[in-house]
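Priority: medium. Attachment 1 of 2:
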């Protein structure tokens, strides 16, 4: 029995957490015991199931969200000399994917209250070299796709929808709003395959191109050759090994069955946060636009300037509350600074990045967990 004079260490609340159950374990074991550990039937099954969930025609499974973004760049034909417009406040992969194909990221600013890519900033950055726009559905709220289309008629849009499976925009599902939509199945995301990702598109030719790209640029995979009774294949372009194994696809299919209930749980946590933070003037949640149903991968608040964000981070972590920061502006990362980017390029994003804080958000959070987080943040004043 613990010493009564020693206070109990509070349970650590991470900012995100996977949820693995018996059905997930059973699905993985069945895949492990099957004839196909990779390039087998579960890949297409998972692609089709996730595409149906999002209302899209074609799914292409890959081994990370970053691989999905890279495949999307290849799918729309981005190459050397091209420019790709990307929001400054995002994970680095949103911009890096363009660099992988020899293109130049052009960083657009974000809206102050949502931290979504600002269509006005996008319009101001379009040049004859602009090949595509990457719209990040930051925190789980869809970007303004209609305004982006209006700002850049005819330009392909890639949705970095890694935060937003299950979200909607004016009644349309995320996964159908862009030319290619990219998702991540990292453990802190809505569903997990340990690591993994998916590209969704309505364009069959783009889908076929991305399938070749994930498989070294080869025009067939092992299962297709096995079914055809042939050994011959051709490498028609330079690709990568971005395949997602059947074992991980089995986990993804099992997880997908529970995604609707997990979305409801995330929205319930967000509603509880919003109600509580209405009474905390120094921590303001991000705005939600009318007509958009949020998926709440992240719950981000903006701290008042009087709050020292670094001190707040340390204090909350010391109390077992796993806050984080999403994100530092990508154009201020060392790699991009060394290539000529620097402060002042995206002032809204740069200012916001000094004050935002990501709070715990995952389906298994209880009411008492939410109350504990809110109380700790309220005491920062």
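Attachment 2 of 2:
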């Amino acid at each position: 029995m613990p010493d009564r004079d020693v206070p109990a260490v509070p349970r650590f609340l991470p900012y995100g957490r996977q949820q693995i159950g018996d059905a997930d374990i059973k699905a993985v074991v069945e895949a492990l015991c099957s004839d196909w550990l990779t390039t087998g039937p579960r890949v297409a099954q998972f692609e089709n199931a996730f595409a149906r969930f999002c209302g899209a025609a074609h799914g292409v499974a890959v081994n990370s969200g970053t691989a999905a973004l890279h495949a999307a760049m290849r799918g729309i034909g981005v190459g050397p000399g091209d420019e790709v417009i990307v929001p400054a406040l995002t994970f680095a992969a949103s911009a890096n994917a363009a660099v992988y194909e020899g293109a130049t990221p052009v960083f657009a600013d974000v809206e102050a209250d949502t931290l979504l890519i600002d269509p006005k900033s996008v319009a101001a950055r379009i040049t004859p070299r602009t090949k595509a726009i990457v719209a990040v559905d930051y925190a789980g709220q869809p970007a303004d796709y209609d305004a982006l289309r209006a700002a850049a008629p005819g330009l392909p849009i890639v949705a970095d929808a890694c935060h937003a499976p299950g979200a909607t925009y004016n009644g349309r599902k995320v996964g159908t709003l862009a030319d290619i939509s990219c998702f991540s199945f990292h453990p802190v995301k809505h569903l997990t395959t340990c690591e993994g990702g998916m590209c969704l598109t309505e364009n069959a030719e783009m889908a076929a191109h991305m399938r070749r790209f994930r498989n070294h640029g080869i025009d067939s995979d092992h299962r297709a050759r096995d079914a055809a009774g042939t050994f011959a294949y051709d490498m028609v372009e330079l690709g990568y090994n971005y395949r997602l194994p059947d074992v991980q696809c089995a986990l993804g299919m099992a997880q997908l069955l529970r995604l609707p209930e997990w979305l409801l749980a995330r929205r319930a946590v967000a509603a509880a946060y919003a109600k509580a933070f209405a009474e905390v003037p120094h921590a303001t949640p991000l705005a939600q636009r009318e007509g958009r149903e949020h998926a709440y991968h992240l719950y981000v608040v903006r701290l008042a300037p009087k709050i020292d964000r670094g001190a707040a981070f340390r204090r909350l972590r010391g109390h077992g509350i796993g806050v984080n920061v999403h994100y530092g502006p990508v154009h201020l990362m060392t790699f991009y600074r060394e290539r000529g980017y620097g402060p002042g390029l995206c002032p809204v994003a740069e200012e916001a990045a000094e004050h935002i804080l990501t709070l715990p958000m995952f389906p298994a959070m209880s009411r008492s967990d939410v109350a504990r987080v809110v109380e700790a943040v309220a005491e920062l004043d």
